[in-house]
Design a protein that fits this description.
The structure holds 2 protein chains of 2 kinds.
Chain A lengths: L1 H19 L5 H25 L6 H15 L1 H4 L3 H9 L7 H23 L5 H17 L14 H4 L7 H11 L6 H19 L5 H12 L2 H6 L6 H21 L2 H15 L6 H14 L6 H25 L16 H17 L7 H11 L1 H7 L2 H19 L2 H4 L2 H12 L3 H11 L1 H15 L2
Helix pairs in contact in A: 1-2, 1-3, 2-3, 2-9, 2-10, 2-14, 6-10, 6-11, 7-9, 9-10, 10-11, 10-13, 11-23, 13-14, 13-15, 13-23, 14-16, 15-16, 15-20, 17-20, 17-22, 18-23, 20-23
Chain B lengths: L1 H8 L25 H21 L1 H20 L5 H9 L1 H12 L5 E4 L2 H5 L17 H8 L3 E4 L14 E5 L17 E5 L13
Parallel strand pairs in B: 1-2, 1-3
Antiparallel strand pairs in B: 3-4
Helix pairs in contact in B: 2-3, 4-5
Classes of the chains: A mainly alpha, B alpha/beta.
Chain lengths: ~450, ~200
C-alpha cells in the first residue's frame, strides 16, 4: 500500500511536469516528479484539513487520482516509443569513469538507505517535533494535533510543531500509507535531488564530469548523513536547489519550463521551512540584477507573489488555530550590535570554512573557483553565484536577527540550525563549480584530450 | 496508423541552453573514447576521489563509519525489533517507556514524576541527564502516543490532570497517589491509579 501510494505521488509529479514543463529532458522530469508530487499532496492534505474533510487515506487517494487524470491525460496517449525516444534523446556519453561513478553512487545509496530504513527516527528534533507531529497527523487527521492541547510557556516550546508542514506531512503520509519508518520520504527526496542535479548539470558539461560533480555533491558528509534522518533541512534543500538551478537555466535560455519548475519548487521550499523566505528575496534580486536593461517586472511580481503564499498562508493558519507566531523568535526592529554581528560571523565562518568535516571540500573549492571566475561573475551576473552570495548574506543576517534571550544560545543555533541550513548551498556550490567558465574551459580541454584518437 | 500515434507522442527535444557547452562528438561506438583513454580518465577520477577520501576527515567518516560500520551492524543485528533498536540508542529511558507502553492501554492518561525526581539517583535508574529522555514530556510522548502524559512539573496547567488513569512510580515516588496498597514495590513501575479503575479526581485523593 505504501509503495503503491508513493508511486502514485511520483506519477502525479510526472504528470504535472510533463504537462507544464514538457521541454525538459526525461532525466529532469524523473528527478522533479517525486518532490513536486509529494509537495502537491501535502498541499492537498492542508486543503482537506481546512475544509474539515480530514486527512485520511480515502480523500488523499481520491484527490491524487483525480489530479493524475486531470493533468496526466497526455501521458495516457504515450507509446513505448515515447519512452525509448526520450532516453535516446539524452545521448549519454558512457565511459569507464561513468560506470565506476554510477557503481560507487549506488553502493553509497544502498548504504545510506539501509541505515535510514533500519534505524527508526531518533533525532531529538524529530522525536520532539517533526516525526511526533507526523504520527499525530496520521492518527488524528489534522494539522492542529493534540500536541497543542498540552501546556506551553512560549512559542519556543512549540517551535518544531509550527514549522510549515511539508516535512511533517510528508512523514505523516508514510505512516498513513502503512510504512513503519517515515524516513522513506527523505530518502526518496534525496534520490530525486541526485537525479535532478545530474539531469540539470549534464546540460552544461559532459556526462562523466556531471556524474563526478553529482558524486561530490552527494557525499558532502553532514548533508549525506541527513539522507538517513527525518529532519526538515534536506527536504528543504531539495526544493531550494532545484529551484535555483532551474532559475539559472530559465534566465540563460528563457525556457518557460524552467521558470515553472523553479517557481513550483520555491513555493514548496517555503512550504517546508519559513526561513526560505530569504531565498525568495535572493531569487528576486537575482532576476532583477540579471538583466538591468530589461528588468522583467512581470516575472518578478509573479515569482514573488506565488512563492511567498505558503509563508503567509501557514503563518495565518497557525496564528488562527494555535495562537502561535513563528516571528516571535526574531527581534522585530532593525538594530546594530557590532559585538553580536562579529560573534555570529566568526562562528558561522568556523562552521563553513573552519574545517572540512561537515561539508568536505565543498566550500573550499567553491571559494577557489569563485575567485578564479570573479570577473566573469560580475560581468555576466552569474545567477547561481549571485544567489549564493545574496542568500548566504541574508541567511546569516537571519541568525543575527534572532532574539537569543527568547530562543536559546547563539552556539546552539549556529552549531545545529545554521549548520544544517547551509545544506541549501551545497548543491548550488557544486553546480557553480561544475559550470563556471573556468571549469567549462578546463573540462572542455580534458574532453578534447580524451576524445582525440 | 501506429506511426501517426508514435509521431504524436514523440517527446519534444530539450531546448539548447546558452550556457557554454562542451562539444560532444557523436560516434557509433558505445564508449566515445579509446580503451586506453577511458582507462586514463578512470584513473584520474579514482585518484581525485581517493585523495579527497583520505585527506578529508568528513569523507573518511562517511566511508568508514556512516556506510561500512552501519552496514556491518545491520547485517549482524537484523533480528532487532523497533523497541530494541531504541534501547540500543537510548538505553534505560527507551526500555522504561517500552515497559509503560506494554502495561497501559492506548487510552491511558499517565502521571509522571517531577523532572528532578526522574534524574535523581532515588529513581533507581540512570536516566538520560542531557538532551531528551524520559524526563521530557514531549520526548516520552513520542514513544507512548496516543497515551496522554501529565508531568508533575506542569500538573496544574495540564488539561488532563483530572483524568489520570495510571501513575509511573519511581523509587518511593508515586505509590502514595494510588488508592490501594502495593505490597511488593518495585524501583520502577506503572500502575493503575484506582484499583476499581473508576475515574476520580487525583487532587481529591
Amino acid at each position: 500500500m505504501g509503495i503503491f501510494a508513493f508511486i502514485l505521488f511520483f506519477i502525479l509529479g510526472f504528470a504535472l511536469v510533463n504537462r507544464f514543463a514538457n521541454t525538459l529532458s526525461i532525466i529532469e522530469k524523473i528527478g522533479f516528479s517525486f518532490p513536486i508530487g509529494l509537495g502537491l499532496v501535502t498541499v492537498l492534505m492542508f486543503l482537506l484539513d481546512i475544509s474539515k474533510v480530514g486527512i485520511t487515506i480515502a480523500p488523499i487517494l481520491l484527490g491524487v487520482i483525480i489530479l493524475i487524470i486531470l493533468f496526466g491525460y497526455p501521458l495516457f496517449k504515450t507509446t513505448r516509443l515515447y519512452w525509448i525516444d526520450s532516453f535516446k534523446l539524452l545521448n549519454i556519453k558512457y565511459s569507464f569513469g561513468w560506470f565506476f561513478l554510477i557503481g560507487f553512487i549506488i553502493y553509497l545509496l544502498y548504504g545510506i538507505t539501509s541505515k535510514g530504513l533500519y534505524w527508526p527516527p531518533a533525532e531529538h528534533d524529530s522525536l520532539t517535533g517533526y516525526d511526533l507531529q507526523a504520527k499525530m497527523i496520521a492518527n488524528e487527521g489534522t494539522f492542529v494535533t493534540s500536541q497543542f492541547d498540552y501546556p506551553y510557556n512560549s512559542t519556543y516550546d512549540l517551535a518544531r510543531f509550527i514549522y510549515p508542514p511539508l516535512s511533517s506531512a510528508g512523514f505523516a503520509l508514510a505512516y498513513i500509507f502503512g510504512f513503519d519508518n517515515s524516513k522513506i520520504t527523505v530518502i526518496l527526496l534525496f534520490y530525486s535531488l541526485l537525479i535532478s542535479f545530474y539531469g540539470l548539470i549534464r546540460k552544461s558539461i559532459n556526462d562523466t564530469w556531471a556524474l563526478l560533480f553529482t558524486f561530490f555533491m552527494m557525499i558532502t558528509p553532514e548533508m549525506f548523513s541527513h539522507a538517513s534522518l527525518s529532519l526538515t533541512n534536506l527536504p528543504n534543500t531539495v526544493y531550494t536547489s532545484i529551484s535555483v538551478i532551474c532559475l539559472y537555466y530559465w534566465l540563460i535560455s528563457n525556457d518557460k519550463s524552467y521558470f515553472i519548475i523553479s517557481l513550483s519548487c520555491m513555493f514548496l521550499s517555503n512550504w517546508s521551512r519559513s526561513d526560505s523566505i530569504v531565498f525568495v528575496i535572493a531569487t528576486l534580486a537575482v532576476i532583477l540584477f540579471f538583466n538591468l536593461k530589461n528588468i522583467q517586472w512581470k516575472n518578478i511580481i509573479i515569482y514573488g507573489v506565488i512563492s511567498i503564499i505558503p509563508f503567509i498562508v501557514w503563518g495565518l493558519f497557525i496564528k488562527m488555530n494555535i495562537g502561535a507566531n513563528s516571528s516571535d523568535f526574531f527581534v522585530k526592529t532593525l538594530f546594530w550590535d557590532s559585538q553580536k554581528m562579529s560573534e555570529i560571523l566568526s562562528k558561522c565562518m568556523v562552521i563553513v570554512l573552519g574545517n572540512g568535516v561537515y561539508y568536505g571540500i565543498t566550500f573550499f573549492v567553491f571559494v577557489a573557483i569563485a575567485g578564479l571566475n570573479v570577473v566573469d561573475i560580475f560581468q555576466t551576473r552569474n545567477p547561481v553565484a549571485m544567489f549564493i552570495f545574496i542568500a548566504w548574506m541574508g541567511y546569516t543576517l537571519l541568525y543575527y536577527q534572532i532574539d537569543y534571550n527568547f530562543a536559546g544560545s547563539i552556539d546552539a543555533y549556529i552549531n545545529a540550525s545554521y549548520k544544517r541550513g547551509m545544506f541549501n548551498f551545497v548543491p548550488l556550490c557544486w553546480f557553480f563549480i561544475g559550470t563556471s567558465p573556468f571549469s567549462i574551459k578546463w573540462l572542455g580541454k580534458a574532453d578534447m584530450f580524451f576524445n582525440k584518437n | 496508423m501506429s506511426k501517426k500515434v508514435n509521431q504524436k507522442s514523440t517527446p519534444i527535444p530539450p531546448k539548447k541552453v546558452v550556457a557554454p557547452q562542451i562539444i560532444k562528438e557523436t560516434k557509433n561506438a558505445f564508449f566515445q573514447m579509446s580503451f586506453f583513454k577511458n582507462f586514463i580518465q578512470l584513473l584520474v577520477i579514482l585518484a581525485v576521489i581517493l585523495i579527497c577520501m583520505k585527506g578529508n576527515e568528513g569523507y573518511s567518516w562517511v566511508w568508514s563509519d556512516l556506510i561500512n560500520e552501519n552496514l556491518k551492524f545491520i547485517s549482524k543485528n537484523k533480528q532487532l525489533n523497533t523497541a530494541q533498536k531504541y534501547q540500543a540508542k537510548f538505553g534505560v529511558d527507551a526500555a522504561a517507556l517500552d515497559y509503560i507502553k506494554l502495561k497501559t492501554p492506548d487510552t491511558a492518561i499517565i502521571l509522571f514524576p517531577y523532572y528532578n525526581t526522574i534524574i535523581s539517583d532515588s529513581s533507581g535508574y540512570q536516566f538520560i541527564k542531557g538532551l531528551g529522555g524520559i524526563k521530557i514530556r514531549v520526548w516520552s510522548t513520542y514513544f507512548l502516543y496516543p497515551r496522554k502524559l501529565v508531568y508533575m512539573d506542569e500538573f496544574e496547567k495540564n488539561r488532563y490532570k483530572n483524568k489520570i488513569t495510571h501513575v509511573v512510580c519511581m523509587g518511593n515516588w508515586g505509590y502514595n497517589y494510588l488508592d490501594y496498597p502495593v505490597e511488593s514495590r518495585k524501583m520502577f513501575d506503572v500502575l493503575p491509579l484506582h484499583s476499581n479503575k473508576s475515574q476520580l479526581n487525583l487532587m481529591g485523593n
